[in-house]
Amino acid sequence: MDMMLLLLTIGIFLGFFVQTITGFAGALIALPFLLFVMPLSDAIGYLSIFYFISTPIYVYKEWKYIDKQLLIKLAPSSFFGLLIGIIVLVYTQPIFLKKALGLFIILYALNNLKEKKEIQLISKMKYFFGFLGGFFSGLFSTGGPLYLIIIRSETSNVKTLRATMFGALGLITLMRIPILAFEGILSVSQFYNAMFVLPFFIVALLLGNKVYLKLNEFILKRIMLGLLFLSGIMLLVKN
């Protein structure tokens, strides 16, 4: 196994193990491994392939818990944000935007670790956050934390939160695949390499689900906030 396939396998395994437990953060965990051996555009392509494979599984298992009305509201703004994000990805790499996103996520996570009442302003700005979630999903595949912020402001039920995260990221994936293909970011060799990684990916989903079933709601919420904080740090310090 060459170094590219090894790090691709490790990144995808760890990323989707965490993704299955919490409903987000798969890309944030996987990207550092992938970016050691490939450019950002290729990493986004691989992540999109595995999100595309996992989406039907997640959505089928969690369908009854997904807040479908919220997803319908977020879909239009997310699509336009995604389209603009991919265009920016193709023609430039504005690292300062990633660092600004990281700083915002850190401040949000720190604020919510204090057990304060959720800020209602975020709920009122859901369409703007939907646009930003789509934009950063297209640009760096890091829109998950923004969707978590939106969905967390709309529900206090952790099962609904996790399931709706699967739905939101699945929706983004379905929008993203054809745009990436049109822009030439996806290639036949990526699909070939993805088939090699697929068994490890499936094991990650199975193990992640087993861990999720053993966690209580309080611990899961704390893990989500902790991952939000960690993802903000990674976005802030990593180029």
UniProtKB/TrEMBL annotation:
<keyword id="KW-1133">Transmembrane helix</keyword>
<protein>
    <recommendedName>
        <fullName>Probable membrane transporter protein</fullName>
    </recommendedName>
</protein>
<feature type="transmembrane region" description="Helical">
    <location>
        <begin position="219"/>
        <end position="237"/>
    </location>
</feature>
<dbReference type="InterPro" id="IPR002781">
    <property type="entry name" value="TM_pro_TauE-like"/>
</dbReference>
<keyword id="KW-0813">Transport</keyword>
<comment type="similarity">
    <text>Belongs to the 4-toluene sulfonate uptake permease (TSUP) (TC 2.A.102) family.</text>
</comment>
<keyword id="KW-1003">Cell membrane</keyword>
<feature type="transmembrane region" description="Helical">
    <location>
        <begin position="70"/>
        <end position="90"/>
    </location>
</feature>
<feature type="transmembrane region" description="Helical">
    <location>
        <begin position="33"/>
        <end position="58"/>
    </location>
</feature>
<feature type="transmembrane region" description="Helical">
    <location>
        <begin position="194"/>
        <end position="213"/>
    </location>
</feature>
<dbReference type="Pfam" id="PF01925">
    <property type="entry name" value="TauE"/>
</dbReference>
<feature type="transmembrane region" description="Helical">
    <location>
        <begin position="163"/>
        <end position="182"/>
    </location>
</feature>
<feature type="transmembrane region" description="Helical">
    <location>
        <begin position="125"/>
        <end position="151"/>
    </location>
</feature>
<keyword id="KW-0472">Membrane</keyword>
<dbReference type="InterPro" id="IPR052017">
    <property type="entry name" value="TSUP"/>
</dbReference>
<dbReference type="GO" id="GO:0005886">
    <property type="term" value="C:plasma membrane"/>
</dbReference>
<keyword id="KW-0812">Transmembrane</keyword>
